[in-house]
Design a protein that fits this description.
Two copies of one chain form a homodimer. Chain A is mainly alpha-helical. The first copy, chain A, has five helices and three strands. In chain A, helix 1 packs across helix 2. Chain A is flat, with a radius of gyration of 22 Å. Chains A and B meet through helix 3 and helix 5 of A and helix 3 and helix 5 of B. The structure holds a DNA duplex.
Chain lengths: 135, 135
Amino acid sequence: MAGTKTLRKEEYSISELAAEFSITPRAIRYYEEVNLLTPHRNSKTTQRMYTRRDRARLKLILRGKRFGFPLVEIKEMIDLYDVDPTEKEQLRQTVAYGDRRLGEIDEMIRELQEIREEIFEFRNRFLEVLEGEEA
Amino acid sequence: MAGTKTLRKEEYSISELAAEFSITPRAIRYYEEVNLLTPHRNSKTTQRMYTRRDRARLKLILRGKRFGFPLVEIKEMIDLYDVDPTEKEQLRQTVAYGDRRLGEIDEMIRELQEIREEIFEFRNRFLEVLEGEEA
DNA sequence: TCGTAGTTTTACGTTGACGTTAACGGAAGC
DNA sequence: GCTTCCGTTAACGTCAACGTAAAACTACGA
């Protein structure tokens, strides 16, 4: 089985991607409008074709959305993957940006754990009441 | 110092609350429009007055917003605090709702930790490059 | 008592993130 | 060749979550 890699498509059409992620083609085109995706065109200026890299970016976009980040901020974050590693100043700024984001994310995790605790305790209190009645 | 509790205001005006949470009075009134807050009126149908309980609810609203929850869902979650503990069916449904939310939140925490890892590694890789140059 | 600062309702405006429709083009199956 | 799906652009519509502006009321300190 040497050389057996999970066979993956190289390119995707817009509706293939849309179906895979349960969104609409319109949404994907919109992400292109705001420069979050830059698919190339196939067969002489017609269909958009999405590479695995485009697909990966789309995944990141949707992940950001799940946390309520606006698309502009999602773009900022995703663009970190494209920083030129020879530009010292850019690197420095990126590191600083990353540090800020890390702080935010740690805070979010903290808060989420709080929320989890609250819901959990509420749930249990209610469950106890129910199980008390059961007897 | 017995009986010394941190002196807290009993009631707040709309702009006091707005200032405290760095939002606008309009936003607070909007939350009332969608039944997320129900301040009482003081001195004959004029000013809205917010109790500490209202203030607590506002805090919860803003916390929900930080995670991108729409106001309707935030309302669902906050209303858990007001479930009638004598209504068995309501309790049962609330427990089920809580379980669903707990699942979601666990997933969010997991994802956030992933994101944290990614940013962290990126940051470190960049930092290494910078420190290499330093020498 | 007057000014000014805060509050009220009403109502229209705005922004982000798409949804929806129209009008068209190419390809594929019959 | 015709229909039936994709796909394309362009343009207008929509919904949530407020922003903003107008016009009136009230509260309060100098």
